[in-house]
Amino acid sequence: MLIEQLKEISNPTYQEEAIIRYLIDHPEIVDKATASDIADLTYTSASTVVRLCKKLGMKGYPDFKIQWIKEQMMIQSEKNIDTSLDLIEKNESMNSVSSTMSKVYNKVTYETNNQLDKMELSKAVSMIKGSDVVNIYGTASNYEVAKQACYNFSTLGHISQAFHSNNIQYINNVAKKGNEKIVSVVISHNGKNQEIIRTCKNLRKAGFPIIAIVGNKDSEIAELANCTLTMYSKGNVFSLSNLTYRISLTYIFDVIYAALLSQDIDFQKSNALYSFTSEL
User: Fold this and answer.
1) Which residues 6+ apart lie within 8 Å of 280 measured at CB?
2) SS3 category, 81
3) Rounded CA separation 219/233 (Å)
4) What are the CA-CA distances from residue 77 to residues 26, 35, 72, 102, 271 (Å)?
5) Cα(51)–Cα(272) distance, integer angstroms
6) In this predicted model, what pLDDT tens digit does every residue of 145-204 receive, in sequence order?
7) Residue pair 187/145 in contact by the 8 Å Cβ criterion
8) H-type helices in the chain, by residue range?
9) Is 193 exposed, middle or buried (CB count within 10 Å of its CB: 0-12, 13-18, 19+)?
10) Hey, which end of the chain has fewer CB within 10 Å, N or C?
11) CA–CA separation, 166 and 176 (whole Å)
12) What is the C-alpha to C-alpha distance for residues 261 and 179, in angstroms, rounded to an integer?
């Protein structure tokens, strides 16, 4: 999205920085403003506004304006979805259910991306990239998501395993050998899962770095971890909260996977990563 691209522009000029800040703080202004209007509001020049638009891959301000308005309408639509409400009602049509679920996916991924600490995310990616083995711990439905994440990491050349219990014997055995760089990922919705807390304590005792993916960044599990990523966790049982939680968790793992892929994409292409689906 353009607003995300604006936030990630490296080394903007002083004038560009003024425009970026204004657009982020006042996204609604583009709807009725010309390039000259934006320039006047930011004490810059219309040519600087156009140059910034081109940095974003647009042909000029008119193209930027069309795309910006389209994206802002989508963002507002996503913000207006309240996942604490009962989104699915009795005997809804297939069109209605399909449309609702599309909006839920957009809402959850949008909110998850917004609340993810990008510094912590970068740290998590670096920890996994520098490891020989990635072990993921999760109970119940978290274990199922963990298995899929393990498969994805394995396609990038990482040995990866999913565990649904403490497995203290395995932790102690690999700690004694000490011949592999192991990073552990632990998952807990509320950050209070006692099985995962015991696992974290055993992992810390063994000296293994921990990445926590939790719904509460102030939880005990988060405090035990070296790196914490926060999931979107709003809703109730009747409003598909189990689904929204899984979407958020899966999204985080997918972002990590994509970041790892991006950092080593030439190697992965040479090893025919993109053709592995033909074997399915």
Assistant:
1) none
2) coil
3) 14
4) 17, 26, 8, 12, 41
5) 39
6) 999 999 999 988 889 999 988 778 888 888 777 778 999 999 998 888 999 999 999 999
7) yes
8) 2-8, 14-25, 35-42, 46-55, 61-79, 94-115, 118-129, 141-154, 168-177, 194-206, 220-224, 241-263, 265-270
9) buried
10) C
11) 17
12) 25
**In whole angstroms, what is the distance from residue 231 CA to residue 189 CA?**
8
> Which residue in this structure is represented by tokens 């565990």?
163
Give residue-wise pLDDT tens across range 12-57: 999 999 999 999 999 999 999 999 999 999 999 999 999 999 999 9
- C-alpha 250/C-alpha 193 separation (Å) is 19
Q: What angle do CA 253, 255, 258 make, to 5 degrees?
A: 110
Position 41, amino acid: L
Measured in whole angstroms, the distance separating CA 158 from the mean position of its chain's CA atoms is 20
pTM of the complete model = 0.70
Element (H, E) at 183: strand 182-188
Over the stretch 246-275, which tens digit does the pLDDT of each residue have? Answer: 999 999 999 999 999 988 766 556 555 555
Dmax (CA) for the chain in angstroms is: 68
